[in-house]
Specification:
Order of helices and strands: HHHHHHHHHH
Shape: globular
Oligomer: single chain
């Protein structure tokens, strides 16, 4: 009993540390992928798979205890009808399948599933838990959502500023939405699934951006997030 209590306290204290560590692994995977492609001439798909598997194995070692995995959201949940509207979000990127460059679907799949797992584990799993334990759930929802949105400022390197501004807004909204879903389900699986679908459709469309699609996506994300926040607050009351 005492060992379980100590383990719980240890996880609570290390949540922010894990978030930072997993973020470094996330960046490391991107660097490895680039190195495999640029320096060793390996194709994009095997480079993505090799680098992703390597990082995921490390994550598996770190989160080898069941209690730790479940604490950070690697656990099953009961799907309910109220989660169905979330699947509207991936459909908003469908226009990119017709106006984009149509990247390799397998490369898009491998890349988006890795991004979905890592970003949800970092921001909704570890960072959320760390802020929630130190403050409260509401602050964890808002702060992790905003941090997730600001994280997309890194796209300024390769993307026009007006698109990045929209990305920051809708990523903040989705970040808050996913944090609410995580709070409701105590699981990352639904968040990972929606995140994966949103990114995969966008990745298949390539690196092209359309101001109409991005603006519409942003508006709908904000509206859907507002609806789930209201629902969540009613359930919490």
């Amino acid at each position: 009993m005492k060992e379980n209590v100590k383990e719980d306290e240890c996880m609570k204290k290390k949540s922010i540390l894990y978030a930072a560590l997993f973020l470094l692994l996330y960046i490391f995977q991107s660097l490895c992928r680039g190195l495999l492609i640029g320096s060793f001439g390996i194709n994009r798909l095997p480079a993505q798979v090799l680098s992703a598997v390597f990082v995921l194995v490390i994550l598996g070692i770190i989160l080898h205890k069941k209690e730790k995995r479940e604490y950070y959201g690697i656990r099953s949940f009961q799907f309910q009808k109220r989660y169905l509207p979330l699947f509207i979000l991936p459909l908003l990127n469908v226009p990119y399948l017709f106006i984009g460059t149509n990247e390799n679907i397998f490369d898009a799949f491998a890349r988006s599933i890795f991004v979905g797992i890592m970003e949800e584990l970092i921001f909704r799993g570890c960072l959320f838990r760390g802020i929630e334990e130190k403050y409260n759930t509401q602050k964890a929802v808002v702060v992790t959502g905003i941090i997730f949105g600001l994280f997309h400022l890194s796209n300024l390197v390769s993307t026009p500023i007006y698109y990045v501004v929209l990305q920051v807004i809708y990523a903040s909204a989705i970040g808050i939405l996913f944090a609410v879903i995580f709070s409701m389900t105590d699981s990352l699986f639904l968040c990972i699934g929606i995140h994966f679908l949103v990114d995969m459709i966008a990745f298949i469309g390539g690196d092209n951006y359309n101001i109409i699609v991005e603006s519409f996506f942003t508006i709908v994300c904000v509206v859907v997030t507002a609806c789930y926040v209201v629902m969540w607050k009613k359930n919490e009351a």
